[in-house]
Amino acid sequence: MFWAALFICKVPVPTTFAVFTIPEPSKRMMPKPSFPQGAALHHSEASVALSELPPDKPEEACGVFGVYAPEQDVAKLTYFGLYALQHRGQESAGIAAFDGKTVHLHKDMGLVSQVFSEAILQELPGQLAVGHTRYSTTGTSRVVNAQPAVVQTRLGPLALAHNGNLVNTANLREELLQNNHNLITTTDSELIAFAIAEAVNDGKTWLDGAIHAFQRCQGAFSLAIATPDGLIGTRDPNGIRPLVIGTLPRHDDTAPLRYVLASETCGLDIIGADYVRDVAPGELVWITDAGLVSQQWAPQAQPKLCIFEMIYFARPDSLMQAESLYSYRIRIGQRLAQESPAEADLVIAVPDSGIPAAIGYSQASGIPYGEGLIKNRYVGRTFIQPTQAMRESGIRMKLNTLKDVLNGKRVVIVDDSIVRGTTSRKIVKALRDAGATEVHMRISSPPVTHPCFYGIDTDNQDQLIAATKSVAEIATQIGVDSLEYLSWEGMLVTTRDHPDHFCSACFTGDYPVTVPEMLKRSKLVLEKPVSLATVPTA
Question: One of 9, 62, 306, 503 is an active-site residue; which one?
């Protein structure tokens, strides 16, 4: 049994280059990895040992992309779609392309532009493809956990790309292990793929098997799934993570419509695709040569889009709620100015994510907007440690101050969030060192007090500064003259949608999908302890 794989490792270890037609297995037969195990482990150990400390921001889980276009270069389209979605994950990237029942797979650690080359893309022919760019939330950061996840079924292989996080991972994994599935990763994404394979191997069709698997999953999942027969897209019953549908341009009216799936509309724009609509919560779309068909597999779906997608995660040029997120972020900045005015000479932003809200704050307050911090947009992870003197300089590798702009000024600085407060403290110190006489910080979201379990990498609760300190205490710790947050009500009202259509659990602790107590206790360390005797075993 072979698993299609093509790995070009960036460390001096053996390279595997292979493309296989996967034979149909007997029931319960599952694929073995074809890449050298030692190479994967060696790569991951280096990554863990040399990576930087996590940034002082919530980190998004992943970006997914899928395309059905037999007449076009689907691998190249997927590459550019992932390129536009790079902000959603920078740890690994992968593409699986289907040429009939032959799956061509390449995935590796690194940015999309590092993982793929023109030569590699030429080795990924096919009629349809799915791609993935990853930031790990379930499963460690190593090449074996990179996506798409590929498994075999009686109907041929499937490749799955997942954005989100399951909350019943432990139970689902145990169920699959009891059925003798050969799990090779530590991701919940692989579990979904195997759950589909299990249902298909039991005699179900692609669609019935997928729906059966989705009904076993609890939590957040937006999926692009490639099969030899077509492309599946779906969102969980709450639609916590986004997924959109687009169409490729046609050369004439007689040509069939070809469809694209992407985490955000910016993934459509880059390839010239037209945005059609969002995949609805609890909806499955099936894309084949005949076009697109839809099935609502979760009739009790209740929209709960992650509000942080709108505040921070998604690109400002992506569309949500029928407008660009830039427009929404301008409005929350305006609302912030109304709720929390300040006497100041200049409004600046923490680039890049704080810029639209800062512009909105300036518009509503009448205080001029300017640039006080310049971002080095080419700083990623580095394996070269800075000198002690450089470390003491704080943020200068990523941000540098404009001293002539800031000197002698009372400054309002706008950011989208504060998680631990470490970066905010360094920024404030840099502003004062540059000559700012007053620093007033305004945050375009409420205080983050609870961890996320739905696909965002957040700290344990004791590391969330707003969970342990009052606003006044935070202000003292980061060294500002004043600190104010956008209200929870203001954040939701400004969406111009029903407030109940969003998940804001990181601000309130009101989780729309029940989180098992054992999982909760791993992060909600400040909550009232739960006796082990009260925890259900099922």
Answer: 62
